[in-house]
Design a protein that fits this description.
The complex is a heterodimer of chains A (403) and B (421). Chain A is of the alpha/beta class and 403 residues long. In chain A, the strands form three sheets. A six-stranded parallel β-sheet of chain A has the order 3-2-1-4-5-6, sandwiched between helices. In chain A, strands 7-8-9 form a three-stranded antiparallel β-sheet, with helices on one face. A two-stranded antiparallel ribbon of chain A has the order 10-11. Chain A folds into two domains: 262 residues, Rossmann fold (3-Layer(aba) Sandwich); 92 residues, formyl-coa transferase, domain 3, CATH 3.30.1540. Chain A is built from 17 helices and twelve strands. Chain B has a six-stranded parallel β-sheet, sandwiched between helices. In chain B, strands 9-10-11 form a three-stranded antiparallel β-sheet, covered by helices on one side. Chain B contains 17 helices and 14 strands. In chain B, helix 1 crosses helix 7. In chain B, a hairpin with a 4-residue loop joins strand 12 and strand 13. The longest helix of chain B has 24 residues. Classes of the chains: A alpha/beta (403), B alpha/beta (421). Strand 6 of chain A pairs antiparallel with strand 14 of chain B, so a sheet runs across the interface.
Chain lengths: 403, 421
Amino acid sequence: MAEKALAGVKVVAFIQGITGPITTSTLAAYGAEVVRIETQTRLEWHRQAGPFIGNISQPDRATPYLFVNAGQMGVTLNLKKPRAMDVMRRIIRWADVVVENFSGATMKSMGLGYEDLRQIRPDIIMLSAAIFGQTGPMAEVRGYGGTLTALTGMAGVTGFADQLPQFPGFAITDFIAPRGNVLAIVSALDYRRRTGKGQYIDAAQAESAFPLLTPVVLQYQANGVEAERMGNRSTCAAPHGVYKCKGTDRWCTITVFNDQQWRGFCQAIGSPDWCRSERFATLLGRLHSIDELDRLVEEWTMQRTPEEVMDLLQAAGVPAGVVQGGQDLDGDPHLRHRQFYWKLEDHEFGAFTYMGMPAKLSRTPYEMRRAPRLGEHNEQFYIGVLGMSDEEFVSYMAEGVFE
Amino acid sequence: MTQGTQGNTMLGGYRVLDLTSDRGYYCGQLLGNLGADVIKIEPPGGDPGRNTEPFFQDQAHPEKSLFWMAFNTNKRGITLNLETEDGRRLFRRLAEKADVLVESFDPGYMEAIGLGYAELEKLNPRLVFTSITPFGQTGPRRDFKSSDLVAWGMGGLLFQTGDPDRPPTHLSHIPLAYLLAGMDGASATAIALYWRGTSGLGQQVDVSMQETVAKTTMMLHEVWLVTGTEFRRSSSWYHVPASPVVLRLVWPAKDGYIFYMMYVGAFGAEEDKRLVQWMEEEGIADDFIRGIDWANLDWREKTKEYGDRIQDYLFRLFKDKTKAELLDHALKRNILIQPISTPKDILTHPQFVAREYWQEVKHEELGITMKYPARFCMASETPLRIWRRAPLIGEHNEEVYCGELGLSRGDLVALKQAGII
């Protein structure tokens, strides 16, 4: 088996929801050894949320949990027990990286702030991914993906002008922040290897999303204009939109950026008379008559399935694609060819299909492993990895430290 | 122009050659933000991405694209025509000493001009060669044409965005799929660099924008596999499961919109009581709203009209206040309201002003100073900053070609006239 890029990197995760888990499961997919600390005494929401595998409500079958927690070791530890902190210190001594995404002061209040951790392990790298960060008047304010999508300005520029602002995807910032987190953690590891120094990374989720909005932030400052929602239209391409196709809620995107693509488009749709009309001959003409153009394009797409539209237009060199839902993604021959989905068995709870990683490394391929059951790796981790004796393990267990 | 020195950085000492178009700008920028020495290589006359709106004072000029400026800070810029023999030779000399190459051409283009990974690997086995393309380097659709909107659709994000009775929709003005693919490219590049530190070997990194987008959707594929039902898009309203009640997420304020989602039951009762207290102070409360047992309210037992009736109180509470006033109340009263920010709101949000998130960057050529995001994370040992604004066309040609590769100014003049730089 090929080597893993992050082999030997040890990560401890105090995480919940989506952002923290995607961060650490990504590190795990590229080979880091990630141990996720949970407690049976307080299950996180995603362990209790459906849909469940086999429609049986059970923490190890909760698919929102499985969805974001692939490849990690699952270990339980009840920090309310007096001797749990002894175990915690051993875990921190073992770790290279600690990742947490509780709000503001939670870790500090548990005695697990960065200053505490570096007493135990001076070169530790710690990343905190709170919504608003660790400082400032809102450091301890709660929040979630919807709040942040609103705050970052993403919702404000999503949708049609005559619609309320729309929320792209679902809690989209939860899926953006992990990308910055992984970049920061791996770069900090690289820095530590060169200098021997660890550090603390205050990765406010909002601050990893704001840079995406920079063009409209600059536009406001330079021109005094605030960007407006323009649906699916473009200021430099026509047609450019999402068009209704045959079937229920089936759509296809079509984007035509230049004359060559326009000619390809006209040929692909059988060169109807309107394509030869003078007002569509030029980009400016098409932009100025966009309402009529969109109507004519949709008349054509509505006679066809989105797959037909995509294949006909792509054959003519026109960027076009199916608006894929869950079933479409499942049948996508391209994603299958690239082995993007990983169907992994849990012999007791049944199979779940995990998404792979969007970046393939030629010499160190990533590998998906299933998400852990609650406390699944207690023995393996505490005895096998941390080196506890059997007696110690049993005595901690008897005290409820591993609840 | 320099905006101060870099000091200690995470990726200081690495050299990145950035051949990307707008599909990949953000990748090199992120590596630059972490201190890598990023050289943006543009075709003579400038990168096509310089022709992207918005423009400074609406002047459509390649040195005035705010889009270009946004995603090319912390890079130096040189021009080079890779389709000439001189250009390729100069490029190979740069690649010999580089740590990373990032490109976003259609699959096969780099091979076609003799600069594919197999060629460059022979020259520099330590090189990390990162490609960002719509569908990746392999598979039956690798040559499909794409755009940001097409990638949103093929990856599933469009399906989850919009109102059910309108077409799916996306972000205007911001090519989100391109930018997120840049983030994935940057993190995968850092991972490959880390492994190089262990193994001494570079490798090829293949980012698929379609997969980037799929990795940004919430359980679209998974819910279909597990339940056989499709996600129902409804992105400014929340349909409470097993209940006719529909919760409003987007509320009109005096000067725009805010985001608020009402929670009831054990999880929401305390906040609901704080809302009622606020209504008292505003003279909106009456016996109906005072009489609600929030802790035991279960939407599953209620009609849509009942849900609407309760929400009407909130509607009246919010509608005549500005976003800033509502945020102020939210902080004081511990209620999870956030403005649906416009660019102005982002710049003035008190939390991020307090965290000194916005950094002023001077554009002498334009006679303006603008605030940029200073970082994507705050690192205690190796702070991120903007060290330099986006480069002008060929701004660092002399620095790189003469200073590093030892060409004379006369050589540069010859190369310029021949359309090579």
